[in-house]
């Protein structure tokens, strides 16, 4: 620490201004490694001052200008930065336990790796956090109520029980891989925010604007999603435990979430159209019948051929009067159809969730007044099996329709050719 620089700062803004007029353009006031308990730095212009590794518990910076100031690894427990201008300030790995940044301008400030694990945690209430970097921070019970978090990054941050009520963000706000267990986002406006792989267990989303947010791989176990706007939300099919959200959860416009063709056209709810038909018993019965029929014909033809090749009188008689039975032209297609439908019906019966088999979406939502959040996620389960099941259903049905159409055509043609007109 430079004692002269400390004296200049303690003398006030006039001395700081004089020093800057005399100093070089790249010079900084050096207060590194200083130890000042409950220091008063309020209403000072401390732009670009270097506080690296300083010990400043309960220091008061209220109303100060700290543009580009450096607080890396500083001990700032209980420090007050209310209404400060902290543009591009650096707090990397600083201890911010119980510190306060209420109504402060933290535009593009850097807090990455800062620990704060106290019971009463860091307070950013009504602060401007636009473009700020909180990557890897540990802020337990942090207060972010009413803050502006446009473009802020909380990538991998540990923020359990944090409060975000009334916060305002945008599509550049990122909570990717963040721990937000038991946090509260009541009345927050965060359209397009990134919640990929975030831990959101027991988190409260009450009246939140989440339009276009990305929730891929986010864990919603026992989260409470009440009202709000959830239209065009991305990655919902890839999120975890949406069906296990709070029973009162009823996210508005969730039916307009952004889903791909697989979830839209090959969900268990769509496959229910085939599944509720009695195809399981019919297809397996048809399979057994066709297999038995082909076996009997094959056995008959084998016996006829064996007797016809015999030089005995019986063989001669058989060769003249008994002939091999031909297989119908559509037998292979019919056999294929029964196999495909039988396998598809078996997959549906085993892996389709019971709730989907029991209720249609209309009955679940309109008649029973239950949330779509507790229906669609079940309809999106086991995507690979859904695609296999859907492909087998469609292919098997197409084969069956072709066989039936061919039989109808043959029958109709025969009737027309042989009809007698009187």
TrEMBL record:
Keywords: Membrane, Transmembrane, Transmembrane helix. The chain crosses the membrane at residues 277-298, 332-351. The keyword Transmembrane applies. InterPro entries: 5peptide_repeat, Pentapeptide-BTB/POZ_domain. Coiled coil: none annotated. This is Pentapeptide repeat-containing protein. It comes from Gemmata obscuriglobus.
